[in-house]
Amino acid sequence: MDLEDELLRQVDGVARDTGRSRNQVVADSLEQAVRSHERSRIDRAFEGIVDDLDYQDELLRLEREMSRGSEEAWGLLDRVAERRQGGESSTG
Predict the structure, then answer these.
(1) DSSP secondary-structure letter at 19?
(2) CA-CA distance, 53 to 49, in Å (whole number)?
(3) Cβ 10 vs Cβ 16: under 8 Å
(4) Distance, CA of 12 to CA of 5 (rounded, Å)
(5) Residue 14: burial class (beta carbons within 10 Å; 0-12, 13-18, 19+)
(6) For labeling, which of 1, 12, 59, 86 is most exposed (least CB within 10 Å)?
């Protein structure tokens, strides 16, 4: 890899300040760039979903199907929490 002298001096400064090697600073920077690129690629892939009416309809259908189960699950968790709080106050 061929880098300009000024950039290498700056990389060496970062390495010195952070206690890493030049190679580690470069590798970390490249990994960060790759992750950023991947996030952007995924974001672009999902941009079309916002305007996809069929997808929005499917989401609403799934939410209606699952909401009752979700409400029942939250109710069960609330009852368990109430029992635990009741048990703690009677023993405390």
Answers:
(1) T
(2) 8
(3) no
(4) 10
(5) middle
(6) 1
Q: Of 64, 1, 23, which Cα lies nearest the Cα of 11?
A: 23
Positive or negative CA dihedral for 81, 87, 89, 91? negative
Tell me the pLDDT of the chain (92 aa) as tens digits: 899 999 999 999 999 999 999 999 999 999 999 999 999 999 998 888 888 999 999 998 998 888 877 788 888 899 999 999 986 655 54
pTM over 0.70: no
Q: Which two tokens stand for residue 56?
A: 């929005």
Element (H, E) at 87: helix 53-91
Question: Could you give the angle at which helices 5-18 and 22-47 cross, rounded to 10 degrees?
Answer: 100
